[in-house]
Amino acid sequence: AAVALGRDDDVVDIGCGTGRSTRDAARIASSGRVLGIDLSRRMLERARAAAADEGLGNVGFERGDAQVHPLPAAGFDVAISSFGAMFFADPVAAFANIAGALRPGGRLGLLAWRTLAENEWLRTFRGALAAGRDLPAPPAGAPGPFGLADPDHVTTVLGRAGFDGVTIEPVDAPMRFGSDLEDAFGFVSALGMTRGLLQDLAPEAAAAAVEALRQALAAAATDDGVVLGSAAWLITARS
């Protein structure tokens, strides 16, 4: 909605993962084409399978790094990214590459995390898995989950990359991690963040941290599943 996606638009989805946002776009842009790009072969395999299961014939997926991937010049009307654009080592180069793939007046729409302090789900997981450690918070503006958390930094980066008309609006919404405790625990236990925070712990400490995580998820269980708050930016711009 933020990029006024239309039936005839051609769309590129940056950091598409398993392709949920790509498929969402393809259903709207039914007479256009939608390309999802991601670095993970495994996620792209799942994305292709899900698109095939839905019978979406206007979707394609490519493995690539948006910082340098050879996107077709002026090949798209819209570029989107749902929590996939925060990790660029050189964000100006990456967004300049994306801008070059957009037609004149093309639209950019991004979702990106705000700060750690504003995201209940991240605070909850990190607190449970800290196991007595003082975990440093990833800095805003550096490549990582908070790479686009600083609005001034975002405006500067997009301007240098060739975008204008930048708008940045807060989005606060609940995140549902599973239908019940076991479903959520299975999902969260498999996250890269969870594995990373556990890897340096001794077995006994790791087991205690996993149990603390289970208890934290249990405390967030509701009739609608395991739910925690999230805080993001909705960022839009034009090429």
What report would you give on this structure?
- The protein is α/β, with parallel strands linked by helices and 239 residues long.
- The protein has eight helices and eight strands, in the order βαβαββαβααβαααββ.
- Strand 7 and strand 8 form a beta hairpin.
- The longest helix is centred in the C-terminal third of the chain and has 17 residues.
- The radius of gyration is 19 Å and the shape is globular.
- The model has no long low-confidence stretch (mean pLDDT 95).
Write the layout of secondary structure elements.
Layout: E1 11-14, H1 20-28, E2 34-38, H2 41-53, E3 59-63, E4 76-82, H3 91-100, E5 102-113, H4 120-129, H5 151-160, E6 164-178, H6 181-189, H7 192-198, H8 203-219, E7 221-222, E8 225-238
Parallel strand pairs: 1-2, 1-4, 2-3, 4-5
Antiparallel strand pairs: 5-8, 6-8, 7-8
Short description:
The chain has 239 residues and is α/β, with parallel strands linked by helices. 36% of the residues lie in helices and 27% in strands.
